[in-house]
């Protein structure tokens, strides 16, 4: 079920989506919530949020094909798509930022990033927006943070070099019509 909340499209999760999220987590992270040596947020709920974002993407775009290249998530309309779903303490709004770690921008080579957010109970996934890789890198509102920097607006300390862009600067996500 899709609704608008905080000005963003929001999808209410269904029990089968949450079951699938847990199933995939057990396969991807059998010992610890890390995917590789570059994992910055090694928390179970953060990893679950990312998996849930991918499940939502698959429901939104049923013709998307899962990538076999681990540097991005899907092929969709001849584009390499990387899905980013952030776990938040509060529902997202357009004043918050989309984030990509700098190493992902260098190594991922995705064409497009899809940004989503969820909260700890995983009952809703907000569709925050999308942006092309080059557009994100070159956007005049993008802000580059070095590892250890602190954002004075919210007290966040960056664990790795990160590029941020406000959700308000992203393109709106439109659902596929099949």
Present the secondary structure layout:
Elements: E1 2-5, E2 8-12, H1 15-28, H2 44-60, E3 65-66, E4 74-76, E5 79-88, E6 97-101, H3 102-107, E7 112-119, E8 124-132, H4 133-138, E9 143-145, E10 162-166
Parallel strand pairs: 5-7
Antiparallel strand pairs: 1-2, 2-8, 3-4, 4-5, 6-10, 7-8, 9-10
Helix pairs in contact: 1-2
Overview of this structure, please?
The chain is α+β, with helices and mostly antiparallel strands and about 180 residues long. It is about 25% helix and about 30% strand. It has helices spanning about 15-30, 45-60, 100-105, 135-140; strands spanning about 1-5, 10, 65, 75, 80-90, 95-100, 110-120, 125-130, 145, 160-165. A 7-stranded mixed sheet has the order 1-2-8-7-5-4-3. A hairpin with a 7-residue loop joins strand 3 (about 65) and strand 4 (about 75). The longest helix has 17 residues, at about 45-60. The radius of gyration is 15 Å and the shape is globular.
Describe what is shown at a glance:
The protein is built from four helices and ten strands; from the N terminus they run E-E-H-H-E-E-E-E-H-E-E-H-E-E.
Keywords:
three-stranded antiparallel sheet, alpha+beta, 178 residues
Distance between the termini: 17 Å
Shape call: globular
Q: How can the largest sheet be summarized?
A: 7 strands, mixed
* Poorly predicted tracts of residues: none
Number of strands: 10
Strand order of the main beta sheet, please?
Answer: 1-2-8-7-5-4-3
Question: Number of helical segments?
Answer: 4
Beta content: 25-35%
Report the C-alpha radius of gyration, rounded: 15 Å
Q: What is the share of helical residues?
A: 10-25%
Average pLDDT taken over every residue? 89
